[in-house]
Amino acid sequence: MRIKIAPSVLAADFARFGEEARAAEAAGSDYIHLDVMDGHFVPNITFGPDVAAAIHRSCNLPLDVHLMISRPEIFVEPFAEAGAQILTVHAEASLHLHRLLCQVREAGCRPGVSLNPATPVEVVRHVLGQIDLLLLMTVEPGFGGQSYIPAMTEKIAAARRLLDEYAPHVELEVDGGINVETARTVVDAGARVLVAGSAVFGHPGGPARGVAALREALGRR
Ligand code: DX5
Ligand code: ZN
């Protein structure tokens, strides 16, 4: 089992996205994770489809786009055109999640659903047939550099059981507070894709050392 690593550019130098994304690629990352925030669904603003397209042009990593925005249906096509391979929406941001996920698929992306820490995993039970990825927030979304919420370990395990039973092909990704201290815990609980912002781009030795440190912490996992 090879664990995937998805560095989040939220912790990168916003003035050097191209170089930072190429450094993440050279480090052996699997995806590049883009945190899109609108100042409404979360109390922070990042960037939109034009910046995502620029990052897409600057490296060969698949774009793993995490929409933390209200009314995500408005931005499905723009992010698909920007090159999103995975397009993840929050269950809490949509009253019509099934329709939204079908829209994402029709736009040519792999659909993902993300859940805030307090949202139970059962929310996705009846849309498992529509998704390729389940993203569990292990901090409240909005900011990088927060601490992993310990109660999320049990939730990851619950999601693992749900996916193993009904949709084993769905990737289980975790996001927030993932570092050399927490990586092993989340993988042992069942996570298979690790988003890491500070642990990669904030590593004093640079992104390559950050990714290497995570892989080392995982041992043979
Ligand atoms: C938080 C974002 C995360 C964030 C993770 O809202 O979704 O992707 O960048 O940052 P770290 O790894 O620093 O917790
Ligand atoms: Zn994210």
What can you tell me about this protein's structure?
By secondary structure, the protein is an alpha/beta fold. The protein has one domain (4-217): Aldolase class I (TIM Barrel). Helices cover 34% and strands 19% of the residues. An eight-stranded parallel β-sheet has the order 1-8-7-6-5-4-3-2. Strand 3, helix 3 (76-82) and strand 4 (84-90) form a beta-alpha-beta unit. Bound molecules: D-xylitol-5-phosphate and zinc ion. The site of zinc ion (ZN) has 6 residues, from strand 2.
Question: What do we call the CATH homologous superfamily?
Answer: Aldolase class I
The tally of helices reads: 8
- Proportion of β residues? 15-25%
Order of helices and strands: EHEHEHEHEEHEHEHH
Report the average pLDDT across residues: 98
The radius of gyration computed from the alpha-carbon positions, rounded to a whole number of angstroms, is 16 Å
User: What helical percentage do the residues reach?
Assistant: 25-40%
Which fold name corresponds to the CATH topology? TIM Barrel
State the major sheet. Answer: 8 strands, parallel
Q: Which structural category fits the helices and strands?
A: alpha/beta
Bound small molecules, deduplicated: D-xylitol-5-phosphate, zinc ion
Q: What would you say the CATH architecture is?
A: Alpha-Beta Barrel
Give me the side-by-side strand order of the main sheet: 1-8-7-6-5-4-3-2
CATH class: Alpha Beta
Count of spatially separate domains: 1
How many E strands? 8
Shape: globular
Terminal CA distance: 6 Å
